[in-house]
Specification:
Elements lengths: L3 H9 L2 H14 L4 H5 L5 H23 L5 H11 L6 H8 L4 H25 L8 H25 L7 H20 L7 H23 L5 H12 L3 H12 L5 H25 L2
Helix pairs in contact: 1-9, 2-8, 2-9, 4-5, 4-7, 4-10, 5-12, 5-13, 6-7, 6-11, 6-13, 7-8, 7-11, 8-12, 9-13, 10-11, 10-13, 12-13
Length: about 280
């Protein structure tokens, strides 16, 4: 692992949460309030997918967490179960020929569900977190909800006439890379990592199957927009939850999970494009 020492010292000072807030702000800066409002067109499908995933994904994560030992590692996997849809799933849905509006709806509503329900769900799952439910709610409000709203407000008001967009894109990419480094710094390579990898693969596979089941009977574009956001959960927000609730060491599995999610999403786009050309 490259320079894990500085990364661990930065994580001890709360750097993961700060970097996450910057990343979420940049994400919000890519959506206006009007675009978020257009999500209502996909309301009927959202009304089914959101509650099912809110309940089922934490259960899948809880089951997968029993494949590893150690409270911190289990806490990290549980945190993936309460994370919202991955931001990249919206763009990947569009590239795969799906409906980005539905994917964006799942991203936005699942983010709200995470802010409100992550603490209670982790408590029900039996997680012994180091933070109170109120403290976790406050943390998620400060590093997820408020930056997202602030970023979207800036995009909607557009005070810089669009000149800020290249800067926010670069800042978003940089913050994502820094967050990957911070999370990966917590990984201590050992034989136990095989069990962590198997647990994360099991959770990802469960998410794919769940998304496929929820997409039965939907038009092709909607199927893609359901499967990708359901299977791809935001490792960055999960890392913030894990750090706040269980300590920085709990974020270690989420660096691996982030890579798995992005590999899966890229592969799904490739398969979808190949099917279009047949």
């Amino acid at each position: 692992m490259s320079f894990p020492g500085p990364g661990r010292r930065a994580d001890a000072a709360g750097a993961i949460l700060v970097t996450l807030a910057v990343l979420v702000f940049c994400t919000g800066a890519g959506m206006t309030f009007r675009e978020i409002g257009a999500i209502r067109a996909a309301g009927r499908r959202l009304a089914v997918v959101l509650p099912v995933t809110t309940v089922a994904l934490p259960i899948l994560a809880w089951l997968a967490s029993h494949l590893v030992s150690g409270a911190a590692l289990r806490g990290g996997i549980l945190s993936a179960g309460v994370a919202p849809a991955e931001v990249a799933s919206v763009a990947l849905t569009g590239l795969a020929g799906g409906e980005p509006v539905l994917a964006a709806g799942l991203l936005t509503t699942s983010t709200a569900a995470t802010v409100l329900l992550a603490g209670p769900i982790l408590s029900i799952a039996g997680a012994r977190s180091s933070a109170s439910q109120l403290g976790l709610l406050l943390t998620l409000a400060l590093v997820v909800a408020l930056p997202l709203i602030a970023g979207s407000a800036m995009r909607s008001l557009d005070p810089f006439s669009g000149r800020d967009r290249p800067v926010t894109r670069v800042l978003g990419t940089a913050s994502l890379l820094v967050l990957l480094w911070e999370v990966a710094s917590q990984i201590h390579l050992s034989a136990s990592d095989v069990h962590v990898l198997l647990a994360l693969l099991a959770y990802l596979a469960g998410g794919v199957i769940l998304g496929w089941l929820l997409a039965i009977g939907a038009p092709p574009g909607q199927r893609t927009a359901i499967v990708l956001p359901t299977a791809m959960r935001d490792f960055a927000v999960a890392a913030g939850i894990a750090t706040s609730a269980f300590g920085a060491a709990a974020a270690a599995p989420l660096g691996i999970y982030g890579l798995l999610v992005l590999i899966f999403g890229t592969a799904a786009v490739y398969v979808a494009r190949q099917q279009e050309h047949r």
